[in-house]
Design a protein that fits this description.
CATH architecture of the largest domain in chain A: Orthogonal Bundle
CATH superfamily of the largest domain in chain A: MetI-like
Radius of gyration of chain B: 34 Å
Number of strands of chain B: 10
CATH topology of the largest domain in chain B: MetI-like fold
CATH class of the largest domain in chain B: Mainly Alpha
CATH superfamily of the largest domain in chain B: MetI-like
Helix content of chain B: 40-55%
Oligomer: heterodimer
Largest sheet of chain A: none
Number of helices of chain A: 19
Helix content of chain A: over 70%
C-alpha cells in the first residue's frame, strides 16, 4: 500500500511538472508561430495533473503493466480538450497541442512502464524524466530572452504596443520594414560609428595584451629568477581587484592628464585589466609544452628569443587563440570604464552608446532591442565558431565575470 | 652562476612591460583611491583654479591723440580657493601708449605685464586701463583683441597637497544608507552565488553523460555568460517592464494576476508576515541566470573526473540515485564548489554594471559599488566615493585572505 502511495505521489508530482512545462513551452511555440494568443489555461493545472495521475495510475495497475497506445491517444485528446476549453484556436494550433500531448504521454510511458515496478527503478525513471524536463527548462530560460530580443527588434512600434505577448517573426513585412529598426539605429543613432570604435578598441586591447603577456608568461613558466613564485601567485590576487576601486582614481588621474575622454584611455585600461588573466592562462599552457624541445634547441645554439619565436609560439597557437578571443570579448562587452570615461558621442563604444542613446523611455523599445542584437551577435558568432578553444580557455583561466 | 644571472636578467626584461602597466593602471590607482579617500575632493575640484582675463574696448571713434579706455576683467575661476602669484601677459597695439594703468602692471615693448600676489575666491573685478592713441594711429589696423591675454597662477591643488582628513569616512559611516547598503551587498553576493551554484550543479548533472547534442547544449548554456551584460540586462528589463513587458502581459492574459507587478521597483513585499525584498530577489535571480554557466563549466569538468567505479560499487550495494548523489557526487565536488563559491562571492561583491543597469540601485538594491557611483557622480563627491571604495577594498581583502587560506593551491582542473 505504501509502495503504491509512494508511486502515485511521484506520478502526480511529475504530471504537475510536465504539464506546466508543456503548457508553457506549447504556449510559447504557438504564440511564436501563429497568432499571438495564449492557448492554455493554467488555472486548473493542478486539477488536471491529479486527474491525469489518477487515470494513468488506475489503468496502469488494474488493466496491464504496459499502457496501451489507444489509452495514450485517448488521454491526450481528453487533456487537450480540458486545456483548450473556451479558447478560440485554429487547426494548426490544435494539431500542435495534440502532438505535444501525445509526445508527453509516450515519454511517460517509456519511463514508467518497467516490468519490475520496484521503488528503485521507479526512482531511476523519475530522475530520468526529470532530467529530460530540466534540459527543456534550461534551454527555455536561456533561449527565451535572446529570442525575445531578436523578435522585438523586428517589430513595428504599433505591433509591440498592441500586443506585447506576440512572439511571431513578422515574415509578411517587406525587407525594409523587416530591418527598419536596424536601419534607424544605424542612421539616426550613429551606431556604425560606435561599432567602429568598439572594434578598434577591442583589437588594440587584444594585441597589446598579447604583446605584454606572452613574454611575461614565458618568463614565469620557464625562466628561473628570484621572486618568480611571488609573481605567479600575485597575478590572481591582482585579478580580484574590483574595477570600481580603480575607476574613481583613474577618472581623476586621466582628467588631470587630459586624456580621459578618448579611446586612448580605454586602450590602456582594458589591456591592464586583461593582462593578468592572459598571463595566467598562457603560462599554464607554456608549462605543458615539453621542455626537451626547447632544451635541444638551446643546446643547438638557438637564443631564448629564437626558441620562443620558433618553438613555443607555434606550439601554443590554440592557447593564444583562446586568450585572444577571451580578451576580445571582455573588451567588447566592457561597460563600466567606457561609461565613466567617455563623454563625447564620437568616442562612444557600443555599450556606452546603447546606454546613452537608446535607454530612454522616449526611444522605441524595438530600437533598444535592435542595438542589443547588434552588440550580441558578433560575440555569439565568435563564440560558436571557436567554442572549443573558449571553453578550454574559460576553465583553464578561472575566468572573471 | 653566470648563466643563471643571464636568465634572471632576461626574465626581468620580459616581465617589465607587464609589471609596469599593472603598476600604473592597477596598483597606483589603488594607492590613489586610498589617497583620495582622505581628501575632501569634489568633482569640480578636478579642474584647477586659474585666472580668467577678458578685455573690452570702451572708446569709440578714436582719432590720433585721443584717450583710449580698455576694460580688463580679472576673475578667479574658483568659487572656493584663492590663487597666488598671478602673472598676466598681453600684447598691446603698437599704436597706443599707456597713460594710466593698474597697480602692479607695466608696459614694456608693447607688452603689458601684470603681477598680483593673491586673488581671493570669487575675485571678480573690472579695471579700466587708460591709453593714448599715438600720432601714427590707424583705426583700421587697431584691434585690441588681436592677442588674447594670457594668465598663469599658482593654486593650492587639493589633489596633490598633503592635507588629509577623516571627514569622508565620518560622512559615509554616519549615513544610515551605508549600513543598509552593506547588508544588501552581502545578501546579494551570498544568494546570487548560491543561486548560480545551484543552477550550475543542476546543469552540469544534466550534461554529465554523453548523448547526441551534448556539445550543442554545452554551448547554449554558456550564452548568458558570454553575451554583453548591457544587452541581456536591457532585455530582461524589457521583459519585466510593468506595462510594455512580455511577462506582465502574459500573466495578465492568463489571469494569474489582476494588475501588473513592478518586478524591478518593489522594495518590500509582505510575505508571511515579514518584509521580503522583492526586487533584490529578482536581481539575484538575474545574477544566477547570468553566472551559472561558469559554475556549470567547472563542475562539469570535475564531474567527468570522478572515478566511475565508485558508482559501480554503490550500485552493487543497492544505493539509490539520490543516495549516490549525496554520498558520492557531492563530496567529490565539494572542493570545486567551495572554490567557486568564494570566487563568485568576491566577483558578485564587486559587481556594478548588472545592478546599475537593471534597477539603477533603486528599490532596495543599492550595493556598495552603486553607492560609489552615486557618491561620485550624483553627489559629485569624489572623496566620499573613494572612501566607500576603500570600504569595499578592505572587505574584499578579508575575503581574498580567507580564500588564500582555504583554497587549494592550484585552481586549474
Amino acid at each position: 500500500m505504501t509502495k503504491n502511495i509512494y508511486q502515485f505521489f511521484f506520478i502526480y508530482l511529475y504530471s504537475i511538472i510536465t504539464l506546466f512545462l508543456l503548457a508553457i513551452i506549447g504556449d510559447f511555440v504557438s504564440i511564436s508561430i501563429f497568432i499571438s494568443k495564449n492557448i492554455f489555461i493554467y488555472k486548473n493545472i493542478f486539477l488536471y495533473s491529479l486527474l491525469y495521475a489518477i487515470s494513468f495510475f488506475a489503468i496502469r495497475i488494474i488493466i496491464t503493466n504496459r499502457v496501451s497506445n489507444i489509452f495514450i491517444f485517448v488521454i491526450s485528446l481528453a487533456l487537450s480538450y480540458f486545456f483548450l476549453i473556451n479558447k478560440e484556436i485554429n487547426t494548426y494550433q490544435l494539431l500542435i497541442i495534440i502532438s505535444v500531448f501525445i509526445a508527453f504521454n509516450l515519454l511517460l510511458q517509456k519511463y514508467f512502464t518497467t516490468k519490475n515496478f520496484s521503488n528503485f527503478l521507479f526512482e531511476v525513471s523519475f530522475l530520468k524524466f526529470l532530467k529530460t524536463n530540466s534540459l527543456i527548462f534550461f534551454s527555455f530560460i536561456i533561449i527565451f530572452p535572446f529570442y525575445l530580443m531578436f523578435v522585438s527588434s523586428l517589430k513595428s512600434q504599433m505591433v509591440l504596443l498592441q500586443n506585447p505577448t506576440d512572439l511571431s517573426i513578422p515574415f509578411f513585412y517587406s525587407i525594409s520594414d523587416f530591418f527598419s529598426s536596424y536601419i534607424a539605429v544605424i542612421t539616426q543613432y550613429n551606431f556604425l560609428n560606435f561599432a567602429i570604435n568598439s572594434t578598434i578598441v577591442s583589437f588594440v586591447t587584444v594585441f597589446v595584451s598579447l604583446f605584454f603577456s606572452i613574454p611575461g608568461a614565458y618568463a614565469v613558466a620557464r625562466l628561473r629568477f628570484a621572486g618568480r613564485s611571488k609573481i605567479s601567485s600575485s597575478i590572481l590576487v591582482i585579478y580580484m581587484v574590483p574595477a570600481i576601486v580603480l575607476v574613481i582614481p583613474l577618472y581623476v588621474i586621466f582628467s588631470q592628464l587630459g586624456f580621459r575622454n578618448s579611446l586612448f584611455s580605454l586602450m590602456i585600461v582594458y589591456p591592464a585589466t586583461t593582462i593578468p588573466v592572459a598571463l595566467y592562462m598562457l603560462q599554464g599552457y607554456f608549462k605543458g609544452i615539453p621542455y626537451e624541445l626547447e632544451e635541444s634547441a638551446l643546446i643547438d645554439g638557438c637564443s631564448r628569443i629564437g626558441v620562443i619565436l620558433r618553438i613555443t609560439l607555434p606550439l601554443s597557437v590554440p592557447a593564444i587563440l583562446s586568450v585572444s578571443l577571451y580578451v576580445f570579448m571582455i573588451a567588447w562587452n566592457e561597460f563600466l570604464f567606457a561609461f565613466m570615461f567617455l563623454d563625447n558621442q564620437e568616442y562612444f563604444t557600443i555599450p556606452r552608446g546603447l546606454y546613452t542613446q537608446l535607454d530612454d523611455q522616449e526611444v522605441p523599445r524595438q530600437y533598444l532591442m535592435a542595438g542589443s542584437v547588434m552588440i550580441t551577435v558578433p560575440v555569439l558568432l565568435l563564440f560558436f565558431l571557436f567554442e572549443r578553444y573558449l571553453v578550454g580557455g574559460l576553465t583553464a583561466g578561472s575566468v572573471k565575470g | 652562476m653566470f648563466n643563471l644571472n643571464k636568465e634572471a636578467k632576461l626574465a626581468y626584461t620580459m616581465l617589465i612591460p607587464t609589471i609596469s602597466i599593472v603598476f600604473l593602471i592597477i596598483l597606483f590607482p589603488i594607492f590613489g583611491n586610498f589617497w583620495l579617500s582622505f581628501k575632501e575632493v569634489k568633482l569640480g575640484d578636478l579642474r584647477a583654479p586659474q585666472p580668467i582675463i577678458k578685455e573690452k574696448l570702451k572708446t569709440k571713434d578714436i582719432e590720433p591723440g585721443d584717450d583710449i579706455l580698455i576694460e580688463y576683467r580679472f576673475k578667479n575661476s574658483s568659487q572656493k580657493k584663492p590663487i597666488f602669484n598671478i602673472e598676466i601677459n598681453d600684447k598691446i597695439s603698437e599704436f597706443i601708449s599707456p597713460v594710466e594703468i593698474a597697480e602692479g602692471c607695466s608696459v614694456n615693448n608693447n607688452l603689458l605685464s601684470c603681477y598680483f600676489e593673491e586673488w581671493k575666491p570669487k575675485y571678480n573685478e573690472k579695471i579700466i586701463f587708460k591709453f593714448k592713441a599715438n600720432d601714427n594711429f590707424e583705426i583700421n589696423n587697431f584691434n585690441p583683441k588681436e592677442s588674447k591675454p594670457r594668465g598663469a597662477a599658482d593654486a593650492d591643488n587639493i589633489l596633490t597637497n598633503l592635507k588629509f582628513s577623516l571627514k569622508n569616512f565620518q560622512k559615509i559611516l554616519q549615513k544610515n544608507e551605508t549600513i543598509e547598503n552593506i547588508k544588501v551587498t552581502f545578501l546579494y553576493s551570498f544568494f546570487a552565488t548560491i543561486g548560480a551554484l545551484l543552477l550550475g550543479i543542476s546543469a552540469a548533472l544534466l550534461l554529465e553523460k554523453n548523448f547526441l547534442g551534448k556539445g550543442f547544449f554545452r554551448g547554449l548554456f554558456l550564452f548568458p555568460f558570454v553575451s554583453p551584460v548591457i544587452a541581456v540586462a536591457f532585455t530582461w528589463v524589457y521583459i519585466l517592464d510593468p506595462f510594455k513587458g512580455f511577462l506582465n502581459n502574459y500573466l495578465l492574459n492568463n489571469e494569474f494576476i489582476s494588475e501588473p507587478i513592478f518586478f524591478l521597483g518593489l522594495k518590500k513585499v509582505d510575505f508571511l508576515g515579514f518584509d521580503f525584498p522583492f526586487t533584490l530577489f529578482i536581481v539575484i535571480l538575474f545574477e544566477s541566470w547570468r553566472y551559472f554557466p561558469l559554475a556549470f563549466l567547472f563542475i562539469l569538468a570535475r564531474l567527468q573526473a570522478i572515478p566511475k567505479d565508485l558508482y559501480e560499487a554503490s550500485d552493487i550495494d543497492g544505493a539509490t540515485r539520490i543516495q549516490q548523489f549525496f554520498y558520492i557526487t557531492l563530496p567529490q565536488l565539494l572542493g570545486v564548489i567551495s572554490l567557486l563559491f568564494i570566487l563568485r562571492f568576491i566577483w558578485n561583491f564587486n559587481k556594478f554594471e548588472d545592478i546599475f543597469l537593471l534597477t539603477g540601485g533603486n528599490a532596495g538594491t543599492r550595493t556598495l559599488t552603486v553607492q560609489v557611483y552615486d557618491e561620485a557622480f550624483a553627489l559629485s563627491n569624489m572623496g566620499t566615493a573613494s572612501s566607500v571604495a576603500v570600504l569595499i577594498f578592505i572587505l574584499l581583502a578579508i575575503f581574498v585572505f580567507i580564500h588564500q587560506k582555504i583554497a587549494p593551491k592550484d585552481i586549474e582542473e
